[in-house]
Amino acid sequence: MAMGEWEVLEAVPLPREEVELGEGVASAPRLRLQDRVAVITGGNGGLGLAAAAAFAREGAHLVLAARSEESLANAASSLKEHGVETLAVPTDVGSPEQVERLFDRALREFGQVDILVNNAGVSGPTAPLHEISVEDWERTLSVDLTSAFLCAKAVLPGMMQRGRGNILNVSSIFGKRAYPYRTPYAAAKWALIGLTQSLAHEVGRYGVRVNAICPGPIAGERIERVWRERAHRRGIPFEAIRDKMVRMAALRRIPEAEEFADLALFLVSDASRGMTGQALNISGGMEMR
Hints:
This protein is α/β, with parallel strands linked by helices.
């Protein structure tokens, strides 16, 4: 499948279970995201795919965006068991033209977008600031920050017109504290919290909510890669970095991707309908502000 192509996986009707209640029959409770449409950037793996699976289990139709065509196809295939429609759109979210195309296709297929999860991100360089190239700086901010601006800009007119919608930005606990040797990443994540709170004020009157999740290290391949690079840069064993991070967490463990997904589901569902402009941590107690 070429870069510009996309596909819709055939939907399997969701089962509607019925339960005998005396002489009557009651339908099963409505799913929390029944028939809502969610666009998830960086939806091809990690936190994005975990959130996609959680949303699918609650009845949402999905639009997954990422640069890698192969991993997108694999992610979409893994969601088929949930019986929802999944649209996979290869996209460089740092490109205004490709973001516009992403939402054009989402609207063409589903007619609306109810949920946007700005999850796409890169780790950026691990180096002292004076050694970081302008190209690495700009690329990190393009993916980790500007993409959220572009996607929100594309989706907001429809949400405001309908009087409802949810935007969820994935920041970091390092958007609340110093992160030496990772200044481009930290700068973008700090800015995402500012974007979240400012936008929440702008669009709250239209019934649109904007919140952020601030993960600490989440167990998986990506954080191990970052820790190994950091250990190499500092000339210390990988285990020293890992063990220090675990000790910094009040729970003495690193959260799992599924725990992130549970929080994401809460924030985009009606269970959190009174919340906007919030930046909630999921870090095992590594950050408590």
